[in-house]
Amino acid sequence: MKGALFGDQVEGYKEAFVYNGIYEIANAPIKPCEDQWKSSPTDLNYQMSFRRQTIIQPVDTHSGPVLPEYLSISHISKAGNPNEKFDVLGIVIYVEEKARKVVTSQQRELLVREIVITDQSSKQPLVILTWNDLAEVECESLSD
């Protein structure tokens, strides 16, 4: 798999990778790779695109993979801490058709899009709000 770094990203990610390293990479969309960016005809037809939100974690090959710890929606606190993260496996039952603009108290315009998921454990679905980049491009595949 190839990753695409452009401009300032090259310097920014210089310390993140070592030759033959093994990494877990999150929030790096996989896109078709144009022929002009391939080094050889046998290269994969896809590449990763790195963004501000991309997270790169070296994998400790001696400790084994980090597996998700799925929680059912019913086990997520209704008054959750915004810094908490959960592994949830659910069924998407609604995606707002388009991202909508909201204006903050500081007069900044942000994009927001609502996603609703459910699972077998709950009568009350989980409402997820995605913001800015995630509300636009990243949600398109969910709304199809």
Question: If you had to describe this structure to a student in words, what would you say it looks like?
Answer:
This protein is mainly beta. Helix content is 6%, strand content 33%. The protein has two helices and eleven strands. It has helices spanning 8-12, 140-143, and strands at residues 2-4, 23-26, 30-32, 46-49, 55-58, 70-71, 87-88, 91-95, 100-103, 109-118, 126-131. Strands 8, 9, 10 and 11 form a four-stranded antiparallel β-sheet that branches. A hairpin with a 5-residue loop joins strand 9 and strand 10. The longest helix has 5 residues, at 8-12. The chain starts with a strand and ends with a helix. The relative contact order is 0.15. The mean pLDDT is 83.
Short summary:
This protein has 144 residues and is mostly beta strands. The protein has helices spanning 8-12, 140-143; strands at 2-4, 23-26, 30-32, 46-49, 55-58, 70-71, 87-88, 91-95, 100-103, 109-118, 126-131. The strands form four sheets. Strands 8, 9, 10 and 11 form a four-stranded antiparallel sheet that branches.
